[in-house]
Amino acid sequence: MHGKGNGGEQAPPRITVTGVLGIPEIQAGARLGVLIAKAAARQGDDLVHGDVVVVTQKVVSKAEGRLVRLDSVLPSPFAAGFGGRSGRDPRIVELVLRESAAVVRMDTARGILITETKHGLVCANAGIDSSNVPGDDVVSLLPEDPDESARVIRADVKRETGKIVAVIISDTFGRPWREGQTDVAIGAAGIEALMDYRGGMDAVGKPLKVTMTAVADELAAAAELVMAKTSGIPAATVRGYEYREAVGSARRLVRERSLDLFR
Amino acid sequence: MHGKGNGGEQAPPRITVTGVLGIPEIQAGARLGVLIAKAAARQGDDLVHGDVVVVTQKVVSKAEGRLVRLDSVLPSPFAAGFGGRSGRDPRIVELVLRESAAVVRMDTARGILITETKHGLVCANAGIDSSNVPGDDVVSLLPEDPDESARVIRADVKRETGKIVAVIISDTFGRPWREGQTDVAIGAAGIEALMDYRGGMDAVGKPLKVTMTAVADELAAAAELVMAKTSGIPAATVRGYEYREAVGSARRLVRERSLDLFR
After folding, report:
1. Does the model's ipTM exceed the 0.90 cut?
2. Could you give the domains of chain B?
3. Are A23 and A59 in contact, with CB atoms under 8 Å apart?
């Protein structure tokens, strides 16, 4: 994409990441692609061909009606047991287990529950949480198919604006070994989420050792920088990033269990 | 930092990430802060107060003379054994072990060696690799103290330009559970690497569940998007990000072993 720099003869690679303000509180059935495109236009950032639109999971879950009232949940004996021993709400534990294919780690003393979701994502609490959800007794589940969520938003952006963009659904995950959370891509449309450089050469002509870059995760992380958790900004645009167009799926970012040394 | 959006009355949060072209091949003793500041200015991107300068580990290691000729390395019996069984160069295995405090995983069949470095970083091969290093028989080690590396670059930028910037040293790491690598921060100066939102409220007034964000890792990831591995761009600037000024250290991003469920 970019050649070796020689200062002045070539435009430096540059991307701009912008938070989209003015997106209203999202109700079930909302057309996020339309709302985001309109809000971006209102702030003078009309979407253009090649933009990457990053949308946080929370508003996607709201638009898709993936909110659950805890008083509707009856915990299983196992969920009630872990909840009681760990000090966690047994109804949330029950929801986490319902959304999960496998438990990766349970730490009773610290109340930590890390599972593999039905999508294959490995994260705390199957991605369930209550922040930025109105109501004391309501939590959000992850979208059922975040790639499909991204495709719907992408199609709505095209219908509203005529522009072809890529869409990433992001969520905030912890990780082993390192403190702090970062945003990663749980859904993608219109972009190759995982760039495969195998067979390429580095700048000194050696075969590349770094073979696969999780560009969708890096885009999600970049977007988080303009959507700090306290700010109520649920979407951002990334302009100027030369991604590879593809149908797109964040499933490629999920390591197969049999290849994972840490599950 | 940013209030709730209301479209038009408030400037949208926006950051710009720019690759710095024209940085020459780095020799031991090079003043990276000076070279980066000059190269940025040549392309019309003079550094300004509050910029974040992200510098890849490889050039830092070169500037600090952290290159090793493999023909100078005598493998221990253990390194020779693992090298022989796994098909890895025993001299590289030896260097990995010398740089490590502990082995986290050894996979002989796939030749995978994940260790905890003396800095506490957990990564493949103790961060040793040969890409973008001239010479067939030469590899780079991680800087001995990447926070100190960042401090030196920051001081040189100030001396050269008078501007106060933050500096992040980045490297490309794999991670459990997810395919593809992303850039993370292994050193930091002038910036709080880990933002602690404990005690804060979300946009609907609930206490925040996401309590700590690894902003330095997200900045490193954003920078990678303009420094694709094949391109020979070893530094980038991030402008417009409102970080918290601090002495800064990437050590806060390293989880204590006793708190880590995956070591």
Report:
1. yes
2. 14-66+143-254 (3.30.1330.100), 68-141 (3.90.1660.10)
3. yes
